[in-house]
Amino acid sequence: MFNITELIIAFLISAIVAFGITPLIRRLAIKINAIDAPEGRKQHEGTKARIGGLAIILGVVAGLIYLQPQHPHMLEIIIGGLIIAITGLLDDLICLKPYQKLIGQLAAAIVVVSSGLVIDKLTIPFMGTVELTQFGFILTILWIVGVTNAINLIDGLDGLAAGVSAIGLTSILIIAIMDYSIIVVYLSIIVVGSCLGFLYHNFYPAKIFMGDTGGALFLGYSISVISMLGLFKNVALFSFIIPIIIIAVPIFDTIFAIIRRLINKQSIGQADRKHIHYRLIEMGYSHQTAVLIIYAFSGFFGVMAIVFSSATMLTSLIIIALITLGIQIIAELSGIVLNGQQPILNGLRKLAGKKENI
Protein backbone atom coordinates (compact mmCIF):
# COMPACT_ATOMS: atom_id res chain seq x y z
CA MET A 1 0.00 0.00 0.00
CA PHE A 2 1.04 3.57 -0.58
CA ASN A 3 1.83 5.92 2.28
CA ILE A 4 -0.58 8.75 1.41
CA THR A 5 1.01 11.15 3.90
CA GLU A 6 4.44 10.52 2.37
CA LEU A 7 3.10 11.18 -1.14
CA ILE A 8 1.40 14.41 -0.07
CA ILE A 9 4.61 15.62 1.61
CA ALA A 10 6.66 14.78 -1.50
CA PHE A 11 4.15 16.63 -3.69
CA LEU A 12 4.26 19.69 -1.43
CA ILE A 13 8.07 19.68 -1.25
CA SER A 14 8.40 19.61 -5.05
CA ALA A 15 5.69 22.24 -5.54
CA ILE A 16 7.01 24.60 -2.84
CA VAL A 17 10.62 24.34 -4.04
CA ALA A 18 9.62 25.01 -7.65
CA PHE A 19 7.31 27.84 -6.58
CA GLY A 20 9.81 29.46 -4.24
CA ILE A 21 12.92 29.25 -6.38
CA THR A 22 11.36 30.45 -9.65
CA PRO A 23 11.65 34.19 -8.78
CA LEU A 24 15.33 33.68 -7.95
CA ILE A 25 15.93 31.94 -11.27
CA ARG A 26 14.09 34.75 -13.03
CA ARG A 27 16.47 37.30 -11.52
CA LEU A 28 19.45 35.12 -12.47
CA ALA A 29 18.19 34.79 -16.06
CA ILE A 30 17.85 38.56 -16.42
CA LYS A 31 21.33 39.06 -14.95
CA ILE A 32 22.98 36.66 -17.46
CA ASN A 33 20.78 37.87 -20.33
CA ALA A 34 18.97 34.53 -20.76
CA ILE A 35 15.85 36.28 -22.05
CA ASP A 36 13.38 36.12 -24.94
CA ALA A 37 12.46 39.28 -26.82
CA PRO A 38 9.19 39.51 -28.80
CA GLU A 39 10.07 38.89 -32.46
CA GLY A 40 9.00 36.61 -35.29
CA ARG A 41 6.84 33.80 -33.92
CA LYS A 42 7.43 35.09 -30.37
CA GLN A 43 4.77 37.73 -29.87
CA HIS A 44 4.68 38.05 -26.09
CA GLU A 45 4.78 41.46 -24.45
CA GLY A 46 8.18 42.58 -23.22
CA THR A 47 11.28 40.51 -22.59
CA LYS A 48 10.91 37.32 -20.54
CA ALA A 49 13.44 35.21 -18.67
CA ARG A 50 13.71 31.80 -20.33
CA ILE A 51 15.49 29.33 -18.03
CA GLY A 52 12.55 28.79 -15.69
CA GLY A 53 12.72 25.04 -16.27
CA LEU A 54 15.56 24.93 -13.76
CA ALA A 55 12.90 25.46 -11.08
CA ILE A 56 11.03 22.35 -12.26
CA ILE A 57 14.25 20.32 -12.17
CA LEU A 58 15.16 21.53 -8.67
CA GLY A 59 11.63 20.74 -7.49
CA VAL A 60 11.98 17.21 -8.85
CA VAL A 61 15.40 16.84 -7.22
CA ALA A 62 13.96 17.92 -3.86
CA GLY A 63 11.16 15.37 -4.19
CA LEU A 64 13.63 12.63 -5.13
CA ILE A 65 15.80 13.42 -2.11
CA TYR A 66 12.77 13.09 0.16
CA LEU A 67 11.26 9.92 -1.36
CA GLN A 68 14.55 8.25 -2.39
CA PRO A 69 12.78 5.85 -4.78
CA GLN A 70 14.55 2.56 -5.42
CA HIS A 71 14.63 1.01 -8.89
CA PRO A 72 17.22 -1.02 -10.85
CA HIS A 73 17.35 1.65 -13.59
CA MET A 74 17.16 4.76 -11.40
CA LEU A 75 20.81 5.78 -11.80
CA GLU A 76 20.61 5.68 -15.60
CA ILE A 77 17.27 7.53 -15.57
CA ILE A 78 18.85 10.31 -13.49
CA ILE A 79 21.93 10.47 -15.75
CA GLY A 80 19.68 10.68 -18.81
CA GLY A 81 17.71 13.49 -17.17
CA LEU A 82 20.96 15.32 -16.40
CA ILE A 83 22.05 15.04 -20.05
CA ILE A 84 18.68 16.40 -21.19
CA ALA A 85 18.84 19.27 -18.68
CA ILE A 86 22.36 20.26 -19.79
CA THR A 87 21.33 20.07 -23.45
CA GLY A 88 18.33 22.31 -22.80
CA LEU A 89 20.33 24.77 -20.72
CA LEU A 90 22.97 25.10 -23.43
CA ASP A 91 20.23 25.69 -25.99
CA ASP A 92 18.70 28.42 -23.81
CA LEU A 93 22.09 30.10 -23.35
CA ILE A 94 23.81 29.72 -26.74
CA CYS A 95 21.01 28.45 -29.03
CA LEU A 96 22.12 25.00 -30.20
CA LYS A 97 21.51 23.81 -33.74
CA PRO A 98 18.73 21.20 -34.15
CA TYR A 99 21.18 18.36 -34.78
CA GLN A 100 23.11 19.27 -31.62
CA LYS A 101 19.94 19.07 -29.52
CA LEU A 102 19.13 15.75 -31.18
CA ILE A 103 22.53 14.40 -30.20
CA GLY A 104 21.81 15.26 -26.56
CA GLN A 105 18.39 13.60 -26.73
CA LEU A 106 19.84 10.47 -28.35
CA ALA A 107 22.59 10.31 -25.72
CA ALA A 108 20.01 10.43 -22.92
CA ALA A 109 17.88 7.77 -24.61
CA ILE A 110 20.87 5.49 -25.18
CA VAL A 111 21.88 5.76 -21.51
CA VAL A 112 18.37 4.66 -20.50
CA VAL A 113 18.31 1.80 -23.02
CA SER A 114 21.80 0.63 -21.99
CA SER A 115 20.43 0.03 -18.48
CA GLY A 116 18.02 -2.55 -19.84
CA LEU A 117 14.92 -0.36 -19.57
CA VAL A 118 13.34 -1.03 -22.95
CA ILE A 119 9.89 -1.55 -24.41
CA ASP A 120 10.40 -5.29 -24.79
CA LYS A 121 6.84 -6.36 -25.54
CA LEU A 122 3.50 -4.97 -26.62
CA THR A 123 0.02 -6.37 -26.17
CA ILE A 124 -1.66 -6.07 -29.56
CA PRO A 125 -5.36 -6.80 -30.23
CA PHE A 126 -6.06 -10.29 -31.63
CA MET A 127 -2.31 -11.09 -31.54
CA GLY A 128 -1.66 -11.18 -27.83
CA THR A 129 1.72 -10.24 -26.36
CA VAL A 130 4.38 -9.69 -29.01
CA GLU A 131 8.06 -9.88 -28.02
CA LEU A 132 10.03 -7.12 -29.73
CA THR A 133 13.56 -8.56 -29.26
CA GLN A 134 16.17 -6.20 -30.82
CA PHE A 135 13.52 -3.90 -32.29
CA GLY A 136 12.60 -2.94 -28.73
CA PHE A 137 15.84 -0.96 -28.38
CA ILE A 138 15.08 1.09 -31.48
CA LEU A 139 11.44 1.62 -30.47
CA THR A 140 12.48 2.77 -26.99
CA ILE A 141 14.93 5.35 -28.37
CA LEU A 142 12.30 6.60 -30.83
CA TRP A 143 9.73 6.84 -28.01
CA ILE A 144 12.01 8.86 -25.71
CA VAL A 145 13.19 11.23 -28.45
CA GLY A 146 9.71 11.53 -29.98
CA VAL A 147 7.88 12.38 -26.74
CA THR A 148 10.67 14.76 -25.69
CA ASN A 149 10.26 16.71 -28.94
CA ALA A 150 6.46 16.56 -28.82
CA ILE A 151 6.40 18.44 -25.51
CA ASN A 152 9.04 20.81 -26.88
CA LEU A 153 6.90 21.70 -29.91
CA ILE A 154 3.75 22.36 -27.89
CA ASP A 155 5.60 24.83 -25.64
CA GLY A 156 4.30 27.87 -27.51
CA LEU A 157 1.94 29.63 -25.09
CA ASP A 158 2.23 30.67 -21.46
CA GLY A 159 1.60 27.71 -19.17
CA LEU A 160 0.84 25.28 -22.00
CA ALA A 161 3.65 22.72 -21.72
CA ALA A 162 3.65 22.71 -17.90
CA GLY A 163 -0.13 22.31 -17.73
CA VAL A 164 -0.38 19.62 -20.41
CA SER A 165 2.50 17.71 -18.79
CA ALA A 166 0.86 17.93 -15.36
CA ILE A 167 -2.45 16.65 -16.78
CA GLY A 168 -0.77 13.78 -18.62
CA LEU A 169 1.30 12.77 -15.61
CA THR A 170 -1.77 12.94 -13.35
CA SER A 171 -3.44 10.42 -15.66
CA ILE A 172 -0.36 8.19 -15.46
CA LEU A 173 -0.39 8.63 -11.65
CA ILE A 174 -4.00 7.45 -11.36
CA ILE A 175 -3.35 4.40 -13.56
CA ALA A 176 -0.20 3.62 -11.55
CA ILE A 177 -2.16 3.78 -8.30
CA MET A 178 -4.70 1.35 -9.77
CA ASP A 179 -1.83 -0.96 -10.80
CA TYR A 180 0.11 -0.52 -7.51
CA SER A 181 3.19 0.64 -9.44
CA ILE A 182 5.13 2.38 -6.67
CA ILE A 183 8.02 3.79 -8.72
CA VAL A 184 5.65 5.35 -11.26
CA VAL A 185 3.53 6.88 -8.47
CA TYR A 186 6.63 8.35 -6.81
CA LEU A 187 8.05 9.88 -9.98
CA SER A 188 4.70 11.14 -11.25
CA ILE A 189 3.74 12.86 -7.99
CA ILE A 190 6.97 14.88 -7.72
CA VAL A 191 7.02 15.95 -11.38
CA VAL A 192 3.35 17.02 -11.17
CA GLY A 193 4.16 18.97 -8.00
CA SER A 194 7.06 20.74 -9.69
CA CYS A 195 4.94 21.58 -12.75
CA LEU A 196 2.19 23.11 -10.64
CA GLY A 197 4.60 25.05 -8.46
CA PHE A 198 6.22 26.55 -11.54
CA LEU A 199 2.89 27.05 -13.33
CA TYR A 200 1.92 29.79 -10.87
CA HIS A 201 4.64 31.96 -12.40
CA ASN A 202 4.31 30.61 -15.94
CA PHE A 203 0.56 30.86 -16.55
CA TYR A 204 -0.65 33.76 -18.67
CA PRO A 205 0.65 36.41 -18.42
CA ALA A 206 3.89 34.56 -17.71
CA LYS A 207 6.58 36.17 -15.58
CA ILE A 208 9.10 33.62 -16.85
CA PHE A 209 9.36 30.99 -19.61
CA MET A 210 10.48 27.46 -18.86
CA GLY A 211 12.71 27.26 -21.92
CA ASP A 212 14.19 23.97 -23.08
CA THR A 213 16.03 23.43 -19.77
CA GLY A 214 13.29 21.89 -17.71
CA GLY A 215 10.10 22.39 -19.62
CA ALA A 216 10.14 21.26 -23.16
CA LEU A 217 12.96 18.73 -23.00
CA PHE A 218 13.07 17.61 -19.37
CA LEU A 219 9.31 17.20 -19.05
CA GLY A 220 9.10 15.31 -22.34
CA TYR A 221 11.93 13.03 -21.23
CA SER A 222 10.28 12.50 -17.85
CA ILE A 223 6.91 11.58 -19.38
CA SER A 224 8.52 9.15 -21.83
CA VAL A 225 10.52 7.33 -19.14
CA ILE A 226 7.75 7.28 -16.52
CA SER A 227 5.30 5.86 -19.05
CA MET A 228 7.81 3.13 -19.94
CA LEU A 229 8.20 2.17 -16.29
CA GLY A 230 4.46 1.64 -15.94
CA LEU A 231 2.19 1.70 -18.94
CA PHE A 232 4.24 -0.34 -21.39
CA LYS A 233 4.70 -3.01 -18.73
CA ASN A 234 0.94 -3.43 -18.42
CA VAL A 235 -0.23 -6.58 -20.16
CA ALA A 236 -3.87 -5.53 -20.47
CA LEU A 237 -5.50 -5.54 -23.90
CA PHE A 238 -4.58 -2.47 -26.00
CA SER A 239 -1.95 -1.47 -23.40
CA PHE A 240 0.34 -0.14 -26.13
CA ILE A 241 -2.20 2.60 -26.90
CA ILE A 242 -2.54 3.99 -23.36
CA PRO A 243 0.62 6.17 -23.20
CA ILE A 244 -0.16 7.55 -26.66
CA ILE A 245 -3.70 8.47 -25.59
CA ILE A 246 -2.45 10.27 -22.48
CA ILE A 247 -0.27 12.70 -24.42
CA ALA A 248 -2.34 12.62 -27.62
CA VAL A 249 -2.40 16.42 -27.99
CA PRO A 250 1.38 16.97 -28.24
CA ILE A 251 1.96 13.71 -30.12
CA PHE A 252 -0.62 14.32 -32.85
CA ASP A 253 0.15 18.03 -33.03
CA THR A 254 3.73 16.99 -33.81
CA ILE A 255 2.68 14.33 -36.33
CA PHE A 256 0.35 16.75 -38.11
CA ALA A 257 3.09 19.42 -38.14
CA ILE A 258 5.39 16.96 -39.94
CA ILE A 259 2.64 16.03 -42.42
CA ARG A 260 1.79 19.70 -42.99
CA ARG A 261 5.40 20.59 -43.72
CA LEU A 262 5.85 17.64 -46.07
CA ILE A 263 2.69 18.63 -47.97
CA ASN A 264 3.97 22.21 -48.25
CA LYS A 265 7.45 20.93 -49.22
CA GLN A 266 9.03 22.53 -46.18
CA SER A 267 11.78 21.26 -43.93
CA ILE A 268 10.42 19.09 -41.10
CA GLY A 269 12.46 21.14 -38.64
CA GLN A 270 11.15 24.49 -39.92
CA ALA A 271 9.17 26.32 -37.25
CA ASP A 272 5.78 27.81 -38.06
CA ARG A 273 2.70 29.27 -36.39
CA LYS A 274 0.30 26.50 -37.41
CA HIS A 275 0.43 24.36 -34.29
CA ILE A 276 -2.91 23.83 -32.57
CA HIS A 277 -2.30 26.58 -29.99
CA TYR A 278 -1.54 29.18 -32.65
CA ARG A 279 -4.53 28.11 -34.73
CA LEU A 280 -6.85 28.61 -31.76
CA ILE A 281 -5.60 32.16 -31.35
CA GLU A 282 -6.09 32.79 -35.10
CA MET A 283 -9.69 31.60 -34.65
CA GLY A 284 -10.25 34.49 -32.24
CA TYR A 285 -9.68 32.86 -28.86
CA SER A 286 -7.63 34.76 -26.30
CA HIS A 287 -4.24 33.50 -25.21
CA GLN A 288 -5.61 32.22 -21.91
CA THR A 289 -8.71 30.63 -23.46
CA ALA A 290 -6.60 28.81 -26.07
CA VAL A 291 -4.48 27.30 -23.30
CA LEU A 292 -7.58 26.25 -21.32
CA ILE A 293 -9.08 24.62 -24.43
CA ILE A 294 -5.95 22.52 -24.89
CA TYR A 295 -6.03 21.68 -21.17
CA ALA A 296 -9.58 20.42 -21.75
CA PHE A 297 -8.42 18.31 -24.71
CA SER A 298 -5.60 16.87 -22.58
CA GLY A 299 -7.99 16.17 -19.72
CA PHE A 300 -10.38 14.42 -22.11
CA PHE A 301 -7.65 12.15 -23.46
CA GLY A 302 -6.35 11.53 -19.93
CA VAL A 303 -9.78 10.39 -18.71
CA MET A 304 -10.18 8.19 -21.80
CA ALA A 305 -6.82 6.56 -21.06
CA ILE A 306 -7.75 5.89 -17.43
CA VAL A 307 -11.04 4.25 -18.42
CA PHE A 308 -9.33 2.46 -21.30
CA SER A 309 -6.73 0.89 -19.00
CA SER A 310 -9.34 -1.37 -17.40
CA ALA A 311 -12.15 -1.34 -19.97
CA THR A 312 -14.00 -4.23 -21.55
CA MET A 313 -13.71 -4.85 -25.29
CA LEU A 314 -16.97 -3.00 -26.07
CA THR A 315 -16.04 -0.02 -23.88
CA SER A 316 -12.59 0.04 -25.49
CA LEU A 317 -14.09 0.28 -28.95
CA ILE A 318 -16.38 3.15 -27.86
CA ILE A 319 -13.41 4.97 -26.34
CA ILE A 320 -11.38 4.46 -29.52
CA ALA A 321 -14.22 6.05 -31.49
CA LEU A 322 -14.27 9.06 -29.15
CA ILE A 323 -10.49 9.37 -29.30
CA THR A 324 -10.58 9.22 -33.09
CA LEU A 325 -13.08 12.09 -33.06
CA GLY A 326 -10.75 14.10 -30.81
CA ILE A 327 -7.79 13.44 -33.10
CA GLN A 328 -9.90 14.48 -36.11
CA ILE A 329 -10.62 17.81 -34.40
CA ILE A 330 -6.91 18.32 -33.73
CA ALA A 331 -6.20 17.55 -37.41
CA GLU A 332 -8.79 20.11 -38.50
CA LEU A 333 -7.29 22.72 -36.18
CA SER A 334 -3.87 21.90 -37.65
CA GLY A 335 -5.17 22.66 -41.13
CA ILE A 336 -4.26 19.39 -42.88
CA VAL A 337 -7.78 18.04 -43.52
CA LEU A 338 -9.37 18.62 -46.94
CA ASN A 339 -7.25 21.69 -47.73
CA GLY A 340 -7.97 23.34 -44.41
CA GLN A 341 -11.69 22.52 -44.22
CA GLN A 342 -13.21 21.79 -40.80
CA PRO A 343 -16.28 19.55 -41.22
CA ILE A 344 -16.47 18.37 -37.60
CA LEU A 345 -15.76 21.79 -36.10
CA ASN A 346 -18.29 23.46 -38.41
CA GLY A 347 -20.88 20.89 -37.39
CA LEU A 348 -20.20 21.58 -33.71
CA ARG A 349 -20.48 25.33 -34.32
CA LYS A 350 -23.86 24.88 -36.03
CA LEU A 351 -25.07 22.68 -33.18
CA ALA A 352 -23.95 25.26 -30.62
CA GLY A 353 -25.70 27.98 -32.61
CA LYS A 354 -28.98 26.07 -32.67
CA LYS A 355 -28.86 25.55 -28.91
CA GLU A 356 -28.32 29.28 -28.36
CA ASN A 357 -31.43 30.05 -30.45
CA ILE A 358 -33.65 27.68 -28.47
**How many β-strand stretches?**
4
> How is the main sheet built?
2 strands, antiparallel
- Tell me the strand percentage band: under 5%
Number of helices: 14
Average per-residue pLDDT, rounded, comes to: 83
> What Rg, in angstroms, do the CA atoms define?
20 Å
Order of helices and strands: HEEHHHEEHHHHHHHHHH
Net shape: globular
Structural class: mainly alpha
Distance between the termini: 52 Å
Share of residues in helices: 55-70%
Q: Residue ranges: pLDDT <50 for 5 or more in a row?
A: 234-238
Strand order of the largest sheet: 1-2
What do these coordinates show?
By secondary structure, this protein is mainly alpha-helical. 70% of the residues lie in helices and 3% in strands. The protein is built from 14 helices and four strands. The strands form two sheets. A two-stranded antiparallel sheet has the order 1-2. A hairpin with a 3-residue loop joins strand 3 and strand 4. It is globular, with a radius of gyration of 20 Å. The relative contact order is 0.13.
